[in-house]
Design brief:
250 residues, 11% strand, alpha/beta, 2 domains, Alpha/beta knot
Length: 250
Amino acid sequence: MTVNPPFYPARPAARFVLMHTSHPGNVGAAARAIKVMGFDDLVLVAPRFADVLMRDETLAFASGATDVLARARIVPTLAEALDGITHTCATAMTPRDFGPPTAAPRDHLPTVAAQGLVPAFVFGGERFGLANDDVYRCDVCLSIPTAPDYGSLNLAQAVQLVAYEWRQALGAFAVAPRAPARKLADQAAVHGLLDHWRAALSEIGFFDPAAPKKLLPRLTQMALRARLSSDDIHILRGIARAAGKHHDHT
């Protein structure tokens, strides 16, 4: 008798990004955590040890998930880790002023799955967590509900919880997410637009780089909330170019 394997959505169903990891065991345990939920896209941003994916402690804690480690990538920046991603979730216990909205994974992830988005889950390092600038790049901040007097989670434990909630949101190996209705711009395109607008706003005198205040984080969150398509990016870049040309002729 032939037994059909459990359903896996078309890869990549999600990306798990670990920032500045310092303990090899956590990297191996994180690989195990995502594999048991049916995922395999693991990216490390500037880990403490350049050879962390091959260390004995990493392999031991992976406990059979060495195929995930073999496919894992190491990149120098978060921007590179998010290439091709259309929805980015920071994981942080403390919300940031002017940062993205905060939600529990169980409340937020079903909506992400229903929209057919490919999310990245970004986890801070064991020593310092996520920097404000890293959180500002994200669409939402996921906060795992914990006891009020003790909210400390091990990195690999946090990865396991989020991977489980995302698998549940996808239908627990049974239901494929719907395809998005339009082609969303990836992180690189959105932040390229923001760089263009920053330059244009500076040129016309609306933005003062010497006293930026909170304009740039607010513009970033406006762009992320808008869920811009590739066509939207082209239009908004065109407006920025036109504003600059008009200013040059006035």
